[in-house]
């Protein structure tokens, strides 16, 4: 599990990677330290600094924070210790 990587201090959150995001990140879950208040876009950019290959899916990715969908953008997130942030790429199928 977690790498404990620091992204500017603050809150330790669990980042869960699914499907293509897990392939690109090379893991399914890790613990990262992030600022308590951060926009969804800033959070994505911080995660991409740790896993640059995730930039490949930037235009298709959806976040879920505390099991609520969040669009990448200016939405301010107030994170609590232990929050889960899920990185969910689009599901393809037929």
TrEMBL record:
One of its GO terms (cellular component) is molybdopterin adenylyltransferase complex. Pfam families: ThiS (PF02597). It is found in: Cytoplasm, Cytosol. The modification Glycyl adenylate is found at residue 94. Its main location: cytoplasm. GO terms for molecular function: molybdopterin synthase activity; nucleotide binding. Keywords: Cytoplasm, Molybdenum cofactor biosynthesis, Nucleotide-binding, Phosphoprotein. The keyword Cytoplasm applies. PANTHER family: MOLYBDOPTERIN SYNTHASE SULFUR CARRIER SUBUNIT. This protein is produced by a bicistronic gene which also produces the large subunit (MOCS2B). Heterotetramer; composed of 2 small (MOCS2A) and 2 large (MOCS2B) subunits. Acts as a sulfur carrier required for molybdopterin biosynthesis. Component of the molybdopterin synthase complex that catalyzes the conversion of precursor Z into molybdopterin by mediating the incorporation of 2 sulfur atoms into precursor Z to generate a dithiolene group. In the complex, serves as sulfur donor by being thiocarboxylated (-COSH) at its C-terminus by MOCS3. After interaction with MOCS2B, the sulfur is then transferred to precursor Z to form molybdopterin. This is Molybdopterin synthase sulfur carrier subunit. It comes from Geospiza parvula (Small tree-finch).
């Amino acid at each position: 599990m977690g790498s404990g990587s620091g992204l500017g201090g603050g809150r330790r959150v669990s980042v869960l990677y699914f499907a293509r995001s897990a392939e690109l990140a090379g893991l399914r879950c890790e613990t990262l330290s992030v600022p308590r208040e951060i926009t969804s876009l800033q959070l994505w950019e911080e995660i991409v600094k740790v896993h640059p290959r995730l930039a490949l899916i930037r235009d298709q990715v959806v976040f879920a924070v505390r099991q609520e969908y969040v669009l990448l953008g200016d939405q301010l997130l107030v994170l609590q210790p232990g929050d889960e942030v899920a990185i969910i790429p689009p599901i393809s199928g037929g």
